[in-house]
Amino acid sequence: MPELPEVETVRRGLAPVLVGARFTQVDLRRPDLRFPFPSRFSQRLAGRRIEALRRRAKYLIADLDEGCALVMHLGMSGSFRVLEGETGVYPARTRFARSRDAAHDHVLFHLSTGAAIVYNDPRRFGFMDLIAQTDLTRHKLFRDLGLEPLEDTFDGAALAERLAHKAAPLKAALLDQRVVAGLGNIYVCEALHRARLSPRRAAGALSRRNGDPTARADALAQAIREVLAEAILAGGSSLRDHRLTDGSLGYFQHRFRVYDREGEPCPTPGCSGIVRRIVQAGRSTFYCATCQK
DNA sequence: CGCATCCCCTGCCTGC
DNA sequence: TGCAGGCAGGGGATGC
To answer: Which of A206, A218, A223 is nearest to A258 (CA)?
Structure first.
């Protein structure tokens, strides 16, 4: 599921419920997701107050009192659901009632406000960890992360610098979290189409052009910002698992221009191309070979 | 180091 | 109808 817009959508849904509340009890229904939960996970969270809920790349970071941070990654199929004032009745009133399988409800966070939050993840590629706030920036999960595309400092020049000298195709370079943090397969395809850049172009060749060395990088940075901002406003893309925290669906999938549209006409005005699917780095790329150069 | 491949896991869709 | 195979929004390990 989740790329930057989906994680940000989840963050915005959880923040008003979490921030200012305390964890009263945390129930684990299995010992691991992608990795084992850290030792004494539930005990270490009990009683802690959530002071802020941030996002970095595709990670959610809940800053807790006493200096610790709860770090959460949704993997491919993770989702959170808010149960307002339903503490104590889980799972009786929620099972099967919200179109997802309670067998994959792995973590239940009870809050001092009487609300609760459930983490559901069928594929279990997600994970959670507890990290001291002072260690976050140098922690291996975060230290190598690249540019945050929605921050003011993200522009063509910064992007070109990160892509310079890379031989990998643009598609693969943009999926690399060390270059731009938070992009995934969908939004890389969509941004490249908007910028009319071929996913097969060498990433390092983006900036080489007579006259204006960053024209293509500027267009790409702009396309990335635009597609992410539009997707967030739409609540993200719900292909299978992504849900807002109230259980509703995002709708940006209806606005995809190329992703999962193999064989359809290219939506670029005046372009007569057909959307193609190729495989790069083992993953599907959708693009128009006619207008994306 | 960069890059490709495979793998983790479950569910869904396709084709036979 | 059943079943095998392929594919899926992420990312880490491994091998060249």
So the answer is: A223
Does at least one atom of strand B sit less than 7 Å from the CB of A262?
no
Q: Token pair 């999926």 is at which residue?
A: A175
Segment holding A109, helix H or strand E: strand A105-111
Q: Which one-letter DSSP state was computed for residue A256? A: -
Chain B nucleotides reached by a protein CB under 7 Å: 2-12
Domains along chain A? 4-138 (3.20.190.10), 156-288 (1.10.8.50)
Q: How far apart are CA A255 and CA A193, in angstroms?
A: 13
Task: Name the token pair of A170.
Answer: 């643009």
State the Cα–Cα distance between residues A85 and A281, nearest whole angstrom: 45
- What end-to-end distance do the CA atoms of chain A give, in Å? 28
Beta carbon of A34 within 7 Å of strand B? Answer: yes
Mean pLDDT over all residues of chain A?
92
* pTM of this structure: 0.95
pLDDT at A261 over 60: yes
